[in-house]
Design a protein that fits this description.
Blueprint (H helix, E strand, L loop, with lengths): L11 H17 L4 H16 L3 E8 L2 E8 L6 E3 L3 H9 L3 E3 L17 E8 L5 E9 L7 H12 L4
Antiparallel strand pairs: 1-2, 1-6, 2-3, 4-5, 5-6
Helix pairs in contact: 1-2, 1-4
Bound molecules: methionine sulfoxide.
Methionine sulfoxide binds next to strand 1, helix 3 and strand 6.
């Protein structure tokens, strides 16, 4: 299997549309969740040129860092804290155009300027964690990212 990603599109929507079938192919023959989550982080980070892409999962009432790509990050986030903990508490996708304007934002890197956090649910529709994506530019994320990142999450058997 070829592991290289090929993205030719110049628009964000076009890039996601090229990337998603490749992500699907990448994970379709592998049953191990951690292996697939690792590759999904790499595919999103390098395919979409994001600054940081990673998963946090609920463990003992905290979000704990899972597979990610990018600079080192904080390992534990409490419910209601930061963008991730707020997404958990409100049970909703949170798009932050400017992290400095989000009260309580947890800065893992001063280079991160905007962010999107999407809740993850298991097959029983229980909240189990979040996908967090950071950008070095302001206002990177919108409903296009929400739609396609949710599509990526829909490919994964949690
Ligand atoms: N900024 C996040 C913390 C995780 S890092 O961005 C990797 C937050 O406020 O929850």
């Amino acid at each position: 299997m070829a592991e290289d990603l090929l993205i030719n599109a110049t628009t964000k929507e076009g890039k996601y549309k090229e990337l998603i079938p490749q992500v699907k192919a990448l994970i379709s023959h592998e049953a191990d969740l951690i292996a697939n989550l690792g590759n999904i982080c790499a595919a999103l980070k390098f395919g979409m040129n994001f600054f940081w892409v990673g998963f946090y999962f609920v463990k003992n009432d905290e979000l704990v860092l899972g597979p990610f790509q990018g600079p080192v990050a904080c390992t534990r986030i409490k419910k209601g804290k930061g963008v991730c903990g707020t997404s958990w508490q409100k049970n909703e996708v949170i798009i932050v155009p400017d992290v400095e304007k989000f009260e309580g934002h947890i800065a893992c890197s001063s280079l991160s300027k905007s962010e999107i956090v999407l809740p993850i649910y298991n097959s029983k529709n229980e909240f189990i964690g979040v996908l967090d994506v950071d950008s070095e530019a302001l206002a990177t994320f919108d409903e296009v990212d929400e739609k396609f990142l949710n599509e990526v999450l829909g490919l994964i058997k949690f």
